[in-house]
Amino acid sequence: MDIGQRIQTLREQLNHFNYEYYILNQSSISDYEFDQMMNELIQLEKEYPQYADINSPTQRVGGTVSSRFEKVRHSKGMFSLGNAFSESDLQDFEDRIGADQVEYVELKIDGLAMSIEYRQGQFYQALTRGDGEVGEDVSQNVRTISSIPLVLNEPVDAIIRGEIYMPISSFDRLNQERALADESLFANCRNAAAGSIRQLDSRIAAKRGLDGFWYTLVDAESYGCTTHWEALAKLRSWGFKVNPYAKRCTGIQEVYTYIETIAETRYQLDYDIDGMVIKVDNLQRQQQLGFTVKVPRWAIAYKFPAQLVSTELEDIFLSVGRTGRITPNAKLVPVQLAGSLVSFASLHN
Fold this sequence. Notes:
The longest helix is centred in the first third of the chain and has 20 residues, at 3-22. By secondary structure, this protein is of the alpha+beta class. The mean pLDDT is 90. It has a five-stranded mixed beta sheet with strand order 2-11-10-3-9. Strands 5-4-7-8 form a four-stranded antiparallel beta sheet. It has helices spanning 3-22, 31-47, 87-97, 139-142, 168-180, 189-197, 202-206, 228-238, 252-265, 283-289; strands at residues 71-73, 83-84, 102-109, 112-119, 122-128, 134-136, 158-165, 211-217, 247-250, 273-280, 299-303, 313-320, 326-337, 340-346. A hairpin with a 2-residue loop joins strand 13 and strand 14.
């Protein structure tokens, strides 16, 4: 086997093992074996730069430092959703779309909306939502997230959309590190994810433990899908992480029953959700319903009420940022909030 073949084989094997570990939650090799293969690939790419590939698994560690993020227009706009806050709001939604529709329900991940483009099955570009028409190119940082495939197992051109988030376990670890370093703390997982994905140094983003769930295949009909459920199956087959709590329901009462079930158990998850998203499953029916000026008529977001808890303030300490800004922080008696043990909080007033 020549050097080029060895490099390609290592890349394919490491991509497969990444998929096993981050998507299937299993592993057919030890961490030591994985690290040995990765180190071999890193060394070979250094010795033979003619085989460089921006989508190599070695690129997940980061290393690119940018001066700014380029603004790029979305080829197809990213929409926001209208909100529902009660069962009666959901009933109004069903009355508008027609009671004979099958609705698809998914968790509303509290993170950062993202659009990723693939060309010939290769990761090409990742854009933030921005204003829905123009987003920022954060490809170098998104490329470091281990659960996101850099090479699909089909050579397709596609745009995939979903949510980048910070797991609660990563958030707790990050804030503990920042508290020890006298740095200001992140207020919540969403802010931490947004701050991490906009780091100019991709090595910092790579260390933050980000993850993502993917729930939209743009123009899914062109890939043979007739329903949103089929589009999710297509995403899984390409190697994307799709939330396991998605469910198809018939009628808004079944939808609301499932919402109540999730509301009772959501703090057992290792990621924040702030509601549920309900969509018409049939893609042709989605097109018929269309959009208002701002939101799709065929989807709505049910928002959970905010959780409030009480605790005691133990101390206040000051941290100084890189710009010299001083931020007061609170040390709290540890308290469970939204599934996370909160010991510190930033103070703003």
